Amino acid sequence: MVAIKIGPVTIPDTLDQPQIVTRTGSNTLNLSEFHRWGGDLRDDLERVLGGNIAILLPTNRMTLSQEITLMPIDFQIIVNIRELGGELGGAVTLNADWLIKPYDDQPIVAGKSVLQETVLSADYHEFVAAQNRLLAMFSREIADAIKQQMTDH
């Protein structure tokens, strides 16, 4: 069974807030004082990606970047999220660069994902649901790249 390490995952400083950040125009951000993340957004993104990818591969050997593990790792996934936002009632965009670093002589796989999802209504619950759907699509792209690496070698 393949062993995966997720992280580090980086996010822009504008998203690294306790408040949910939305756009109100092409150059304007809104930090909601009444709609906040339940935890640390960067850590939660890493955890969700790890959980999704573990299901898609499947594997029960998933480690997050801040966890210490003694098991050998087959692949490390490094993610730089450039954008994860949009407008209430509009669309949410996920723009991310990612690397899959094998722990043997296989080549590093680099990718870029730009995904968009419609926000079905102008409320925060639907905004976060659209972000979650984007993370599911993003996880599938990364899991497919790992599967390709595994079949190539």
If you had to describe this structure to a student in words, what would you say it looks like?
There is one protein chain. The protein has helices spanning 41-56, 124-152; strands at 3-10, 19-25, 28-36, 61-64, 75-86, 91-102, 109-118. With 153 residues, it is α/β, with parallel strands linked by helices. It has one domain (3-148): ABC-type transport auxiliary lipoprotein component (Rossmann fold, 3-Layer(aba) Sandwich). It has a five-stranded mixed β-sheet, covered by helices on one side. Strand 6 and strand 7 form a beta hairpin. Helix 1 (41-56) crosses helix 2 (124-152). The longest helix has 29 residues, at 124-152. The chain is elongated, with a radius of gyration of 16 Å.
Determine the strand fraction and express it as a percent band: 35-45%
Order of helices and strands: EEEHEEEEH
**In terms of structural class, how would the helical and strand content be classed?**
alpha/beta
Number of helices: 2
Most strands sheet: 5 strands, mixed
Number of strands: 7
Spatial arrangement of strands, main beta sheet: 4-1-5-6-7
Shape descriptor reads elongated
Total domain units: 1
CATH topology: the name is Rossmann fold
Helix coverage percent: 25-40%
Distance between the termini: 15 Å
Whole-number radius of gyration? 16 Å
User: Quick one: CATH superfamily?
Assistant: ABC-type transport auxiliary lipoprotein component
Low-confidence stretches: none
List descriptors.
153 residues; alpha/beta; Rossmann fold; 2 helices; elongated
